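A favour, since you know our structure tokens better than I do. It will help me judge whether the discrete encoding reads sensibly. The space below this message is yours for that.
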Amino acid sequence: MYPYGTPTLLPAQGFDPVKDAHDLRKAMKGFGTDEDKLIEIICRRNNEQRQEIQRQYKTHFGKDLIEDIKSETSGNFQKLLVGLLRPIVDYYCAELNDAMAGLGTDEEVLIEILCTLSNVEIHTIKNQYLRLYGAHLESELKSETSGNFKRLLTSLCAAARDESGRVDPNKAKEDARELLKAGELRVGTDESMFNMILCQRNYQQLKFIFQEYESVTGHSLEKALKKEFSGDIMEGLIAIYKCVTNKAEYFASRLHKSMAGIGTNDKQLIRVIITRCEIDLADIKGAFERLYGKSLKSWIKGDTSGHYKHALYALVGEQRSS
């Protein structure tokens, strides 16, 4: 969806969806499944090509490719392939819906999606969400969250950020002063000012505002956010801050968090790989190594195994050395 970044997954050259559909059918027919063939096709085509393969599969075999994949695979390997086969907008909608379904809400997912996408992407997701789930994304978000965090998500969901790219250094000075007055210079915090500025100003202007804030106070706005806020609202505002200053580093930190410590948050790992591989995953890989001193591949190798691991390798543009 984004023109600014280096993807790890590019459209396949000499693409033949009919051949791919037949090869996939062959890989799943009869006894056993040729998982390597599934990886070779599904993980080395872009989303648009995967949609075309599914149409051909249905046309030629009268069967649904996702249903066949579900019956032939399991676990995280299955989740990854099924996620890849969904149109990307449907995938985002499903992730948001899952984050709010059942008991409790996975606020991190709401932050990761709503704090990082452009207006047109959020509008597209909102329209499709209504079609898929018969509910308005905004009202779902409102019923699942509360307080400052609810207001932040409502602002982001409105998708009315200025995207002109115009910068006004004087206005930046003014906004930096407003943020100071709303936070560090008063008792308590006026969160509405932070909400307004971080949700409305364009990214280029926000860069100016953050620099201005730093030159006035001697520390980053991120540090101030950590001091003035806590919990979900803090995480949300910091996510916006990081997306403005260095988006690749933000997603590198999401990948790191999914694998750090005991166990792996596979849902998170899969989501970041699926949503960024056609946009800027090469940049994220670079940021990951810079921040954590080891390659993303080595972390994936340590945290995953089998076909799932090899499928992730393909998506992050790594060879199956081991």
User: Anything to note?
Assistant: The chain has three domains: 1-86+260-321, 88-158, 169-245.
